[in-house]
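residues and backbone:
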Amino acid sequence: MKITLEQISKRFQRNRIFKEVSYTFQSPGAYALLGANGSGKSTLLRIIAGMQSASSGKVVYEGDSGNAITASDFFRHVSFCAPGMELVEEFTLQEFLDFHFSFKQPQESLTTIQMIRLMGLEAAANKPIYDYSSGMKQRVKLAQAIFANTPVLMLDEPCTNLDEKGVQQYKDWMDMYASGRLVFIASNDPREYYMCQEKLIVEDFA
């Protein structure tokens, strides 16, 4: 998978967030989008994901064989996790995972039972997600992204609400399931982007 940014700029009313960003991301590879809070790293991540429009410029997606992928079809190739994303909290964990993975293939034929065990949430598997703590919900958000068999993985501040045990769990999952993928981490916490060889500082494009 290859993603190319061609002169991407973003403004909110009169405020310019970043200007004329051109960059090529190639798999396998792990890229960190770095910057202080409010710098625009989450906005840039959503633009790369096709979830938000740039003010100018374009994003080009190519498959491994060089075939063009349309922006409207890119969602099939990407898994995404961000603090503000919504879960279907009326579902139990088992129901949510069954629903989510009816649309996307799991990694290495993982079953939902195995995923729940990896999350350490066996005792809560049949409870509605709205009863979960913020840390438990974050583990669910990470699991639905990391455990999906997609060539692109995008994570925005992945350790939000996680304690030290949860951070180590995140690192273990990334070591096991992120290899060979095109990975993006939007963060200002080195624990979150420890695996990233390439680092882009969003303020440099302001």
Remarks:
- The chain has one domain: 2-205.
- The helical segments are 41-48, 93-100, 112-119, 134-146, 164-177.
- Strands lie at 2-12, 15-26, 29-34, 56-62, 68-69, 78-81, 152-156, 182-187, 198-201.
